[in-house]
Amino acid sequence: MQIIVTRTFAGASDYVAEIIADLVLSKPTAKLGLATGSTPERVYDKLADMHFKGLDFSRVSTVNLDEYCGVTGDNPVSYRYYMNEKLFSHINVKPENIYVPSGINNPEEELELFSYKIYNGKIDLQLLGIGPNGHVGFNEPGDKLHRAAHITKLTQSTIDANARFFNDKSEVPTEAITMGMGDILSAASIVLLASGASKADAVKALLMDDYITTQVPATFIKMHAAATVVIDYELANMIGYKVKG
Ligand code: PGA
Question: How far is the CA of 37 from the centre of ligand 1 (A)?
Answer without folding.
Answer: 5
